[in-house]
Design goal:
This protein is α/β, with parallel strands linked by helices. The protein has one domain: NAD(P)-binding Rossmann-like Domain (Rossmann fold, 3-Layer(aba) Sandwich), CATH 3.40.50.720. It has eight helices and nine strands. It has helices spanning 17-28, 40-53, 69-82, 106-134, 158-178, 196-203, 205-213, 223-234; strands spanning 8-12, 32-37, 58-63, 88-91, 141-145, 184-190, 193-194, 221-222, 245-248. A seven-stranded parallel beta sheet has the order 3-2-1-4-5-6-9, sandwiched between helices. Helix 5 (158-178) links the parallel strand 5 and strand 6 (184-190). Helix 1 (17-28) packs parallel to helix 2 (40-53) and helix 3 (69-82) packs parallel to helix 4 (106-134).
């Protein structure tokens, strides 16, 4: 299936995990994908994966810290000068941390909010304008990666949970603002998926068992399973869906 022929896409945090898999899927389906992230070597690994996955796949690397408005403006200028249009934006970059509220440093609170929430605002603001100028012929879409934790506060991750709940809410506000331009905005909330973000936790067998016990499907998800839903939300197949959150949690909330 080639759902993104002639489309230009930006994926933030594309150097690993869910972002990398999403970028691969978009490129396999015809999109020219700009891989945005902080670490060049990780972005290069994703570009290599894309090159190996399909003969005609096209990707480009652009080093960006999504918490910096200056970096985000440079990314926007790059996409505009190189392609002059943008159809798909995946706000995926994110970080987590572990702390009780009463022991949480304000600087750690800020780090999580800036990376997970402020970045979604900055990137959507600057690249959103380019999407508006692009027009709605190719069913433009923004997908923000939120979390199951945005629906259910997790113990020891109050800063993370709060940032992701805000992403779900911000998504709805942005969807309302961009709907008149034909741009759809949705969020995808993954449950527990095996990626570099969760790798340390999963090394602890008791932790892994607890995760599996709390998941109706009795297993941890994969980054591919999350990417599949992100790519669907970005595609024309979801052309009547905006302001929604898609929960991909293996049934965590129903246990
Ligand atoms: P990951 O750690 O593999 O991916 C996150 C990527 O974001 C990394 O490549 C990292 O370098 C990049 N990044 C972090 N800060 C950045 C910054 N300031 N500027 C640019 N790039 C930056 O982890 P994963 O799991 O693939 O996470 C992707 C998204 O999925 C995140 O938003 C995460 O919160 C969310 N998520 C993941 C879950 C999981 O179980 N893996 C569950 C729920 C949500």
């Amino acid at each position: 299936m080639q759902r993104f022929t002639d489309c230009v896409a930006v994926v933030t945090g594309a150097g690993s995990g869910i972002g990398a898999q999403t970028a691969v899927r978009l490129a396999q389906e015809g999109a020219k994908v700009i891989l945005a992230g902080r670490t060049l070597s990780k972005l290069q690994s994703t570009a290599d994966l894309i090159n190996r996955s399909s003969e005609n796949a096209v990707s480009e690397i652009f080093q960006t810290d999504v918490t910096s408005e200056e970096d985000v403006q440079e990314l926007t200028t790059f996409v505009n000068q190189k392609y002059g249009k943008l159809h798909v934006l995946i706000n995926n970059a994110g970080v987590s941390g572990k702390s009780r509220i009463l022991e949480l440093n304000a600087s750690e609170w800020d780090r999580i909010q800036e990376t997970n929430l402020k970045s979604v605002f900055l990137v959507s603001k600057h690249l959103g304008k380019l999407m508006m100028e692009t027009g709605s012929d190719h069913y433009p879409a923004i997908v923000n990666v939120a979390s199951l934790s945005g629906h259910k506060a997790g113990a020891m991750i109050p800063h993370y949970s709060s940032s992701k709940a805000a992403v779900i809410n911000f998504t709805k506000a942005l969807a309302a603002e961009l709907a008149p331009y034909g741009i759809r905005v949705n969020s995808v909330s993954p449950g527990f998926a095996e990626t570099p973000l969760t790798a340390d936790g999963l090394k602890n067998k008791r932790f892994e068992e607890a995760i599996i016990k709390n998941t109706a499907l009795r297993r941890v998800g994969s980054s591919e399973e999350i990417a599949n839903v992100i790519v669907f939300a970005a595609s024309k197949e979801a052309s009547y869906m905006t302001g929604s959150d898609l929960l991909v949690d293996g049934g965590w909330l129903i246990t």
